[in-house]
Amino acid sequence: MIDKKTNNRRYSIAVVPGDGTGPEVIAEGLKVLKTASKIYGFKYDLIEYDLGGERYLRTGETLPDSVVRELKQTDAIYLGAIGHPEVKPGILERGILLKLRSLLDQYINLRPVKLYPGVETPLKDKGPDDIDFVVVRENTEGFYVGSGGFLRKGTSDEVAIQESINTRKGVERCLRYAFELCQKRNKEKKLTLCGKTNVLTYAFDLWDRTFREVSKEYPDIKTDYAHVDAISMWFIKNPDWFDVVVTDNMFGDIITDIGAIIQGGMGVAAGANINPEGVSMFEPIGGSAPKYKGKNVINPIAAISACQMMLENLGEIDSSKLIENAVIMVLTKNMKSLSAGQMGYGTSEIGDLVVKYMKEL
Ligand code: IPM
Ligand code: MN
User: Fold this and answer.
1) Tell me: the pLDDT tens digits for 11-35?
2) Which domains does the chain have, with CATH numbers?
3) Is the CB of 98 under 6 A from ligand 1?
């Protein structure tokens, strides 16, 4: 919270290191946070939560109500990774990550796709000038609501239904966020709606109609539309066409993995789960990578960039810019590769290098 009278900026930050390599990468992000706070004079309190696979295996708990109540009182949540090899897929994802997104009404999943200098992209003849866009993924609706069920389960006549829920309110607030962001970015001022209006004629009719309506309030923003299959191709062939892309939850999940790989992969891709009126959560997009756990080989850059996004969201713009520049220094001057074990440095050394450049810049 910012005390306007004294300008004492003090934030309460919930830290959820989570599973696998989550704690290792979060530790590096926290080093960077500490350095930023010293340089720019803000203060923070960390509250750690042991949510994740270990706690679930020990106690059977995923996300207790009391924790949700406490998280609602914080200024931001910094999350490592959720996922454990001994826990059946879906339990932790639905029970912790998706539940947090939905209970905290983090209706925007913001995923920048930015190729930094010094980072190799698998795209031939493409460089940092070509790959710099943002995907705004709706984060609380669509298939992720969990609406549906089975009929005659386990029989040869089984039916499984999974419905995509799209509300006017949910679609509109997501689109408005995307228009506003496009204005704020002030780059090409082009917003692309990604959908499937030719097949999903109810859901994307709502998206398309609302998009056209809302666009009238933003005459300075050029609007464009692409089907999800086509955009998957264009992200590879012409990433330079995009400025801001807005889409539903499921399509956003899929196309941001394409986004992540063209910006250098899970080692660098960060994302923010944003409730513009509430508590937001910041995470590296990659998973818990259990096979690398405790080996000090995993790339912490994505987690550091997630910390950078958190500071930007808290209004610490100078800190955010400094971290980004320090990350670019490490990527261009130090790191041999972004892959675990091939970086030329250990996880903690990368964090130390970011800190070193922050102090020098
Ligand atoms: C992501 C992840 C999650 C999602 C999974 C882990 C539930 O893939 O953040 O993109 O599908 O949203
Ligand atoms: Mn995903």
Assistant:
1) 999 999 999 999 999 999 999 999 9
2) 1-111+277-361 (3.40.718.10), 121-263 (3.40.718.10)
3) yes
